[in-house]
Design brief:
By secondary structure, the chain is α/β, with parallel strands linked by helices. About 45% of the residues lie in helices and about 10% in strands.
């Protein structure tokens, strides 16, 4: 009898679209677990980087347990050197092919064909898929959950996760008003990191992401959501759901009920006191904030200038309107 597929819930979105809040709300459900981005971003100085439980990442017992379970599966794993990103040890040729966002089936067929010419990719791809499966399995074993939430967001990662025959991948497309997203891109330290400056950058006090112009931010928001649409077009309709960040903030309970019904877990077990639940999340500094207040962030209305808004609309105005904003 074939092994049962591991259930993975992937959050697809532009960065700064509320996926950290969404992931932690989902991870507070007793049948789900979220550790943030499973592709594991660069942690910076691991001697200072904090797990969301406020423990230095390499001293956290949860992550030690994951390392032990991965070792039992023949995987040498440390969260500070997870090697779960598709770009891990990639050659310049592979990186060049990974760079374009996911688009039409023909373009993706061409990408796959060109990647297959790389001996490194042919060797690494099955190993990466197995490592990802083992990682999801280790988290489920560690927590006793039914599914793992991955807030990695990046489309090229989702493309290859969908090819993993050992994973049952469901997608939540999280959309946020592009003007709010663009403000966060403009100044990530101020608008997209921990409120306590000492906790920014995961505990280093320094936000790693650089700011962008509003036009560049609008382009990133537009392209990322178009990439999500391209990927979802390849999936069965019952395997994905579209959720608005604004609904998560303004109508939290009902929106969570809808998400949990989609995932297949009991909505009555939701926890709005999500910060009182023990989390072990890596990623965005907001995971380290202590407040459980869920409040819609619309600072863009006062912080973006008329000239900046004009720049945004010139790039992404039509798409913003098509999304109902």
């Amino acid at each position: 009898m074939a092994n049962k597929k591991q259930k993975l819930i992937f959050l697809s979105a532009a960065s700064h679209s509320g996926t950290t809040l969404t992931a932690m709300l989902l991870g507070a459900h007793p049948d789900l677990c979220c550790v943030g981005e499973l592709m594991t971003p660069r942690l910076g100085e691991k001697e200072r980087y904090l797990c969301s439980c406020q423990t230095i990442i390499d001293e956290c017992s949860f992550w030690s347990g994951i390392s032990d379970k991965m070792a039992n599966k023949g995987q040498d794993f440390s969260i500070s050197n997870a090697q779960t990103d598709i770009r891990t040890d990639a050659t310049p040729y592979m990186l060049h092919l990974f760079k374009p966002l996911v688009r039409s089936p023909f373009i993706e067929l061409l990408r796959d064909g060109l990647l297959s010419l790389s001996p490194t990719w042919r060797e690494q791809s099955p190993k990466l898929q197995q490592r990802t499966t083992d990682y999801v399995s280790a988290i489920i074993e560690q927590t006793g959950s039914q599914a793992v939430v991955d807030s990695s967001k990046i489309g090229i990662r989702l493309k290859y996760l969908l090819k993993n025959e050992d994973l049952d991948v469901r997608v939540i497309w999280v959309i946020r008003d592009g003007r709010g997203v663009s403000l966060a891109y403009k100044n990530p330290s101020k608008y997209a990191d921990a409120k306590d400056p000492k906790l920014r950058g995961g505990g280093s006090g320094e936000t790693q992401e650089q700011g962008r112009t509003i036009s560049a931010a609008a382009r990133e928001w537009l392209r990322s959501n178009q990439e999500s649409e391209a990927l979802l077009a390849t999936m069965d309709q019952d395997k994905w759901i579209k959720v608005y960040y604004e609904d998560i903030c303004k109508n939290t309970g009902n929106t969570l009920d809808r998400i949990f019904e989609f995932i297949g877990v009991d909505p009555t077990k939701k926890r709005l006191d999500f910060k009182t639940v023990e989390h072990h999340v890596v990623g965005n500094g907001m995971r380290l904030d202590s407040s459980e207040v869920i409040k819609l962030d619309e600072q863009w209305q006062s912080e973006l200038t008329a000239e900046e808004l004009k720049g945004f609309y010139g790039v992404a105005g039509d798409y913003l309107k098509s999304m109902g904003y």
